[in-house]
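Slide 14.
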Amino acid sequence: MRGRVVKQIHAYLLLLPALFFLFVFTHYPALTTLIDSFMSTPKAGRSAVYVGMENYQIMIEDPVFWRSLSNNLWFAALTIPLSIGLSLMMALWVNKKLAGQWFLRTSFFLPTILPMIAVANIWIFFYTPGYGLFNQGLQTLGFAGQNWLGDPRFALGAVIVVAVWKQAGFFMIFYLAALQSLSPSLREAADIEGASSWYFFRRIQWPLLMPTTIFVLINAVIDAFRMVDHIIVMTHGGPDNASSVLLYFLYQIGFQFWDQGYASALTVVLLMTLAVIGLIQFFTLDRRAHYQ
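Slide 15: predicted structure.
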């Protein structure tokens, strides 16, 4: 009994440094943010005071918040399936024996290693009115060029394309690793039975890839609500808040308007939304997962 207690003490002592940093940089900031969401913003000569649900009431009545939330939901609804579907198609393609396979894998993964600021500046050149790559292509085909980032109709779609281009290569790596872990005998048995490639994917590969899909999907949802760098560089949330998302709105409230209480309330809502979505995804999709 004494030896077991000593081992447990040693185990907790080994975990203590990690627990310390986890508390200091994760749990403590989350707790202080929750407390600040019920407080007013401190000003010069005036400390913060308890205001109850006032910050949340302001949020409910703020049309810019609802516009940002709507944009974020559209951003997530489009980037998540597009990036996952594209990454899966790329993984299935480069998993085959192809000439220049290493070049294709490197090309697909290259956007992942580029900083988002650099990616945004590259795509600004593509979207530039008049002489941008896309407008030159449209004009060559006889169509009028568009102000992709300056038109409310296209601004959100333009930043969605950038996000999908940046994410797909990263998710491809996980699918490629999962495909390579599948036993080759599965493909051989399917060939013997005369199964088509589509049937083999739908009935064998896709169910066995479900654990990877759960992991990728949760990360894609988190990315859909935390990606803001390219929006800051490309559109600044405009025009007329057409490309503003929750995290960019939070950045404006917290660091441009210096409203600490309101920004804390926005942070709490954002974290709770991500937590609920993540738990629903995990417990819903985990039942359909097949683990080897």
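Speaker note: The mean pLDDT is 87.
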